[in-house]
Amino acid sequence: MKLSAQSIAVAAGLAIAIAPSSASAQPAKNVRFLVGAPAGGSNDIFARAIGQRLSEALGRPVIVDNRPGASQMIAADLTAKAPPDGNTLYMTSTTYTTGAALMAKLPFDPINDLTGITMIARGPMVLVVHPSVPAKNVKELIAIARARPGQLNYTSSGIGGINHFGVEVLKSMAKIDMVHVPHKGMAPAITDLMAGQVQVLLVSLTAVEAQMQSGRLRAIGVSSPQRSSFLPNLPAIAETLPGYDNDLWWGVFVASKTPKPIIDRLNTEIHKTMTTDDMKKRFADFGAVGAPTTPDGFNTIVKNEIAKWTKVVKAANIKPE
Question: Rounded to an integer, what distance in angstroms lies between the CA atom of residue 195 and that of residue 317?
C-alpha cells in the first residue's frame, strides 16, 4: 500500500504528539508553549502548571515561551505560522478576541489560522466605583450617569482591552455617556481610581479585592450572566441589564491545520490537568473556575466574540493606540 506525502506527515505528527513517557523515549521535539503576556500573570501561571503535566503525559519537555506585546498577538502570530504538528501551543485570554476585533490588519487570520484546543477557565470581572460616587448598585450608577451625561469618567488598562470594551457594552445597553480615560496598565488605572481622578472601572476580582475589603473601592456588580460563587451577595450586571455577559476566559490554541487526533489528544490531557486540586486552586487564585470545552465549542465562542467586539469597535468608533 502506498502512502501519500500528506499521510506520512500526519502519521509523523501523531507519533510526536502521542509519544509515550518512558526512560528510553527520545522525543523528536520539545513542545513550545507560547504565552502572549509577561511572566507572573494568570496566562503565564496557567501555562506553566498545564505545561508541567503535559510534559509528564507526553513524555517530553514543555517549554513556556513568553512573548508579550500587541494585545497578545505577537505570540498568536508565531503560533499561526508554526508547523501544524501540535508542538507549538498558545495560551491566551479574552484579550485575543478584543485585540482581533480592534486591529484591522494582522499578519494572520485570527479565526482561520488558529484553532482552539479548549477553554480552560473563566471568571467574572467586577464593576467598582470610587466611594465619592453614591451608587450602591448598577441601577443607581445608570441613573447618576443619565443625570450627569459625560461627567463620569471610567478607566481601563488601555484601549481595546476587555475592561474597556466591557464598559462600552454597558454604556450602549444602558444608553449612558461616560468618558473613557485609558491608562497604560491596570496598576495606574487602579491608582487613579482610588485617588478619585476617575470614578468607574471594570476589572478582575483579584486585582481590587483588597481595596474592596478596605472600603477604598465599592463593588456594585459582576460581569457574568449570573452571580459569582466568589461574591454571592453581589448582583450580576445582567440583573439590571438583561443579556449583559462579559466574563474573562483563558484558553489554548494551535495552528489551524493541526490534525484532529493531535488536537483531541491535547484536549483530553489538558482536561485531566484541570480536574486536579492544584489547578482548581490556581484558577480560584484569579477568581476563575475550570471551564473545559470541546475544540469546536471553543472555536465557536471565539468566533462569536470577535464578531461581538467588532460591532463594539465600529459602534463606538474605537481606534487602536
Answer: 29
